[in-house]
Design a protein that fits this description.
By secondary structure, the protein is mainly α. The protein contains 9 helices and 5 strands. It has a 3-stranded mixed sheet. The chain has a two-stranded antiparallel ribbon with strand order 2-3. A hairpin with a 5-residue loop joins strand 2 (about 180) and strand 3 (about 190). The longest helix is centred in the first third of the chain and has 19 residues, at about 50-65. The radius of gyration is 20 Å and the shape is globular. The N and C termini lie far apart (about 45 Å). The model is unreliable at about 220-223 (pLDDT under 50).
Length: about 220
């Protein structure tokens, strides 16, 4: 095996066993990038709006707790248990609490944003980030890029639910400004011109742009 891509603690596991080293980590690519998602079916969310709201509130409170470094020793011990991650505690602590060792002979680094749970409105379902994800699905030919992307994002990225949950917890409910942002490869993504961004990419598959009927996802209205 020449290499692999995995989240912690498996990179640190390879380093501690002297069978690998870290070439790069996600802080080198995009600090605060979108990653995990809490997703529910729209019909369920509409049928149980208060349960949906309570679920989002619980997630926001848990993430605030995890971002407090005073709580992380306890969290690391829980994660190390066999019923959860089941890894050595020292592997769990790397980057999460302790300086991060890439295994390349350089001194370990204290990376305070190696794990980001709450700061900088981390859990806001930003429509700009969602739009970038749509461009990547189209870039690699997985789905067409929806001509009605504003409708798609409004239905999927539920800012109304997030905003209500945040307000009830006295958290800021603002969505980050929809401004262009630079990516690690030097390209700039402008949320106001997603098709221009797609056309500017040198490496991509054939881009399809089509109207998507979100209520019947198998139906594509040819544009």
């Amino acid at each position: 095996m020449d290499g692999f891509c995995a989240g912690e603690p498996w990179n640190t596991h390879a380093i501690k066993e002297n069978i690998g080293f870290v070439i790069t980590h996600d802080l080198d690519l995009w600090i605060g990038h979108p990653e995990k998602v809490l997703g529910v079916r729209e019909d369920w969310a509409n049928q149980y709006p208060q349960t949906h709201l309570a679920l989002v509130k619980a997630l926001l409170e848990a993430c605030e707790y995890c971002d407090d470094r005073r709580n992380r020793p306890q969290i690391a011990e829980l994660l190390a248990k066999p019923e959860y991650v089941g890894a050595e505690l020292e592997y769990i602590r790397a980057g999460f609490l302790d300086p991060y060792d890439r295994g390349d002979g350089k001194p370990p680094e204290q990376l305070l944003r190696f794990n980001q749970f709450h700061i900088d409105i981390t859990n806001c379902p930003s429509r700009a980030e969602g739009l970038w994800i749509l461009t990547q699905l189209a870039r690699w030919g997985i789905t067409p890029f929806p001509r009605n992307w504003i409708e798609i994002l409004d239905r999927v990225r539920r800012m109304d639910v997030y905003g209500e949950a945040a307000r009830q917890l006295d958290f800021p409910d603002l969505e980050p400004n929809r401004e262009p942002f630079a990516l690690f490869d030097g390209t700039v993504f402008d949320p106001d011109d997603p098709i221009g961004y797609l056309n500017s990419l040198r490496i991509k598959r054939e881009i399809r742009i089509e109207e998507i009927d979100i209520d019947h996802p198998a139906i594509v209205v040819a544009a």
